[in-house]
Amino acid sequence: MRKLFVRTTNYERFTAGVAAVENRGAAEAGMMLVHGQPGFGKSEVVASWAVDTGAVFLRANIDWTPRYFLVELAKALAVDPRGSSEQLFNRMLAVIATQQIPLVIDEAEATLKNHAVVLEKIRDFSDRTETMVILVGMEAIQRNIARHPQISSRIAQVVEFTPASLEDVALTCQQLAEVRIAPDLVAEIHRQSNGRMREVMNAIATVERVGKMNGLAQVDVAAVEGMSITHDWQARRPRTVSASGGKAKRGA
Questions:
Q1: Closest by Cα among 136, 143, 170, 132 to 53
Q2: DSSP reduced 3-state for 249
Q3: What DSSP string describes 202-219?
Q4: What are φ and ψ of residue 114, in 5° steps?
Q5: What domains, with CATH codes, occur in the chain?
Q6: Whole-Å CA distances, 137 to 35, 117, 143
Q7: Which one of 32, 39, 183, 234 counts the least CB within 10 Å of its CB?
Q8: In 3D, which of 142, 157, 118, 139 has the Cα closest to residue 32?
Q9: 133-137: strand order across its sheet
Q10: What percent of the chain has pLDDT over 70?
Q11: Are the C-beta atoms of 194 and 234 separated by less than 8 Å?
Q12: What is the pTM of this model?
């Protein structure tokens, strides 16, 4: 499978949200919230954007404290992590303010425990440097952040990741698969995956193996009949393909 980044509809909406935050009117409202169900590609999209823009990408841990967060941020910024928390904060404040480095916090739910003390520290960086902070979390995070008005009032944009469209899946198959995937199988991958990009990627890898093993220039539904190409993560069992009408059957 090719190592490329596919610019899906969710990516386009995410970058539009970033542009809106960058052009905001209130300087202190420099935070953006990205949320959605698992498997829709949030982490991949935001991590790729962070690499492209030079932003710091951190995955929050459930045992984060303000000090723990500061040390992790210092490592990411290549800043000396020694000294008191105040010294460390001021040291990184100077770096972020001077270089205008955006911060991305994945699995941001972990920053909300203990009255959101860690997220308050993150907000301090945004307020005092006027740089963008992107929080990434599950669908309930917006409601949970709303309980903290001093933080939610700083969120200038909210982007919800939604299921990939058929066009998104077709584009992903076209750009990533090293064999051609026929339109009927693209539609079946979209249907089985329910638009979860994680499942789409797994399906492409399976289809690609079938195509290469059998020397096929194109793989269609008939070529993978009876095979499992996706997994029902809720029922915890594979889904298999039936050539009759392109319907998938759940395996045992």
A1: 132
A2: strand
A3: HHHHHHHHHHHHTT-SEE
A4: 50, 50
A5: 9-160 (3.40.50.300), 166-250 (1.10.8)
A6: 5, 17, 11
A7: 234
A8: 157
A9: 56-59, 103-106, 133-137, 31-35, 155-160
A10: 95
A11: no
A12: 0.89
